[in-house]
Amino acid sequence: QGTRFSFPVSRHGFDIVLTDVKMPQVDGRDLALAIRAWPERRHIPVILMSGAVGPTFIMDLLKDGVSAFIPKPVCSQPLLEYVDRYLKCPPHVVQTNSKNGESDEKSPSR
Known about the structure:
Layout: E1 17-20, H1 28-37, E2 46-50, H2 55-63, E3 68-71, H3 76-86, E4 93-96, E5 103-106
Parallel strand pairs: 1-2, 2-3
Antiparallel strand pairs: 4-5
């Protein structure tokens, strides 16, 4: 509450936020609320991780604007699935044709 956040990456932007709920100087929930209050960044997915797990706790996080919650210990598969879900593929993907080295535009298979 009342914490001021500085985002040094704002010059280049960022696509997703992965954070713990409990950190030394800032609470992950407060970080998520600050991102949601920042009009230019409110669309950015925020994934929180924590060892504190309970339906009420998770529902409160989601009400506060957290995109997803992952319980600790974090397993790589669910984390990668959430990151993949929230980081959309571009409208087309340029791939190199392995036979002749030329680029071919391909539609994503999603």
